[in-house]
Amino acid sequence: MQDEQNVTENAGQQVYEQNLAENVGEQVCEQEDNNICKGCGRFDIDRSENPNSILCSACRETYIHYPIPKNLILVFIITALLLGAAFYRFPKVLESYRIYKGSEQMVRNGEISTAINGLYTVIERYPNATSVAVRFTDIAMEGGRYDVASDVISTYLANRELSEDEVTRINQYIDILERYYNTFNAVEDMESQLDTSLSPEEAMNKMSEQLRERLTLPDQDKSVLYYCLFMYSQDMNEGMGYLEKCIEEDDTFFEAKVQLASLVRRQGNLDQAEGYYNEVLSVDKYNSAALRGLAIIRLLEDNKEEGLDLADRAYNLDPEGTYIWDTYVIALKENDKDNAADELIQEYLSKNNELDTDLQEYISGNLTLEDYYIGNKEVE
Amino acid sequence: MFLIPGFIISIITFPGVIIHELAHQIFCRLFRVPVYEVKYFQFANPSGYVLHESPENPWKTFMISIGPFLVNTFLGMIIIAPAAIELITFSDYSNPLNLILGWVGFSTLMHAFPSTGDAKVMIDNILKNRNVNLIFKIIVSPIIGLIYLGAIGSVVWLDALYAVLIAMTIPNLFLLF
Predict the structure, then answer these.
(1) pLDDT at A25 exceeding the cut of 80
(2) pLDDT at B4
(3) I need a surface site. Which of A111, A127, A147, A312 has the fewest CB within 10 A?
(4) Beta strands in chain A (DSSP E)
């Protein structure tokens, strides 16, 4: 019997071939005759398929079709039904996974806003997913989206178990965020404590003086202080200097880059301005302020069509954004789409808004595009 | 490294044992090899086995022996796929359906490796068989080596590692489509 059968068994177990051979011997063979089927004991052994056969052709067929227990089939049917139920909701799960896995690539493609919006939907669906929260924080910090990073850390990472590396990294982020927000709060306190009897010019000088003093303190976010110094600056060149220092301190301070680009453009240096806008757009291709800035550059370069396209994109992304509406109206006018521009203006005025003086001058034809966007105008 | 006796692992992961034995049985049926007895699962050592005729064709022996690797891997992948993302990546254990499928899928994958018994059958019927040509023996030898490696590796949780790797890989395969 030993030569006529194999035992294939479960992993990691010993072979019990001898015992099993004896068992089968009892079950299928009580005959000594080698030519008689050891299954039924009546017919000749059929060796046409296998010389090792111990069965007649009828028994061979029976043993080949050794039955699978019905209750096992029932278990498989239940498992299949469970699988069906699981696969029914699988597309949503897979979509979340796709966002999570693709988020870093999205950032590399300059789609940080898309990545952040996507990761928000994932983390809201899976609030316990620390891996998602950690990646989300990494991306938000990398993109200078400190509001998002602090929200994710406080909501989804507080008191969670993390690896040693993650703890170190998140703690570093927390230090940066604390310094950033503490500095902003300190500046707000300074503003609220200003003597109300001071003239606006005196108030700005006072604020600048206090901000400069703060620069010497070790626990301050210098990029924030430089940005505030720019806000209180009354000189364009000085303001540009502060913005440059702000960016030197924090390369992800995109608001500062956009402001610097606008100032550079006002000086007539369109190439340099475009460089700054592109730097911002390379990280966030949906940054409405940078799109709006680039739209102006294209309009000034007489590439009106692309200018309108960019202004349109900025407007669709953020219709309430600073000067985005104005730029869109101007881009429409520059492309001879007066009707569309007038419709926008009427809609704007119907909401009890008033047009900016320069915009009125431009619309009435008293101010050229160049006059409007180049030269010493108030900071945008 | 913590060690748990094999029979306890087999009890915990019994769905994988059942599918492993069923795979042997299915491959026997596919290759028209009579099966004398099947024990899908038992609280003993071995926890399951299939007793079948010794095929004359070494190719049949080979396929019957590695059948569980193919079936358990394929079925395990399908079963664990919808649960793996939420359980492994998103650490979401709130859905009982995922827990059931995760357990069945993981058990199935853990028992994908052919046993040393399966390898022994291949040695007897292929390597020691004078009627089998040398090229086939050369091809099969490293596979038998891998089976032994897998069986020995299960002591250091190689089978569990295999299950985890597959569970982590399968969601990425879905992303390709």
Answers:
(1) no
(2) 66
(3) A147
(4) 5-9
The CA distance from A84 to the nearest CA of chain B, in Å, is: 10
**pLDDT band at residue A353 under the 50/70/90 scheme:** confident
Taking the C-alpha atoms of residue A92 and residue A56, their distance in angstroms, rounded to an integer, is: 56
The angle formed by the CA atoms of residues A55, A56 and A62, to the nearest 5 degrees, is 75
- Average the pLDDT over A15-35 and give the result: 47
What's at A44, amino acid-wise? D
The answer, yes or no, to whether residue A2 has pLDDT greater than 50, is no
pLDDT value at position B116?
Answer: 86
What percentage of residues in chain A have a pLDDT greater than 70?
A: 90
Phi, psi at A47, each rounded to 5°: -105, 15
If you search the block for the tokens 């960019």, which residue do you land on? Answer: A310
Q: State residue A376's pLDDT score.
A: 61
Average pLDDT, integer, range A309-331: 94
Among A301, A272, A277, CA closest to A370: A301
Residue carrying structure tokens 């003093």: A213
B100–A66 C-beta distance less than 8 A: no
Residue by residue, DSSP assigns chain B as: -----HHHHHHHTHHHHHHHHHHHHHHHHHTT--EEEEE---SSSSS-EEEEE--SSHHHHHHHHHHHHHHHHHHHHHHHHHHHIIIIIS-----HHHHHHHHHHHHHHHT-SPPHHHHHHHIIIIIT-TTS-HHHHHHHHHHHHHHHHHHHHGGGTHHHHHHHHHHHHHHHHHHT-
pLDDT in tens, A235-281: 889 999 999 999 999 999 999 999 999 999 999 999 999 999 999 99
Please tell me which of the candidates B91, B111, B174 has its beta carbon nearest to residue A10. B111
Q: Which of residues 11-50 of A touch B (CB under 8 A)?
A: 11-17, 20, 23-24, 27-28, 49-50
Contact A11 B85 (CB under 8 A): no
Q: For testing the chain A interface, which of B52, B53, B122 should be mutated: the one with the most A CBs within 10 Å?
A: B53
Residue of B49, B53, B104 with shortest CB distance to A10: B49
Question: Among all residues of chain B, which has the CA nearest to that of A66?
Answer: B35
Confidence of residue A377 (pLDDT cuts 50, 70, 90): low
pTM of the model: 0.76
Give the closest of A7, A52, A130 to B51, CB-based: A7
> CB distance B49–A16 less than 8 Å?
yes
CA proximity to A260, closest of A281, A248, A277: A277
Q: How confident is the model at residue A17 (pLDDT cuts 50, 70, 90)?
A: very low
Spell out which residues of chain B touch residue A53, defining contact as CB-CB under 8 Å.
34, 53
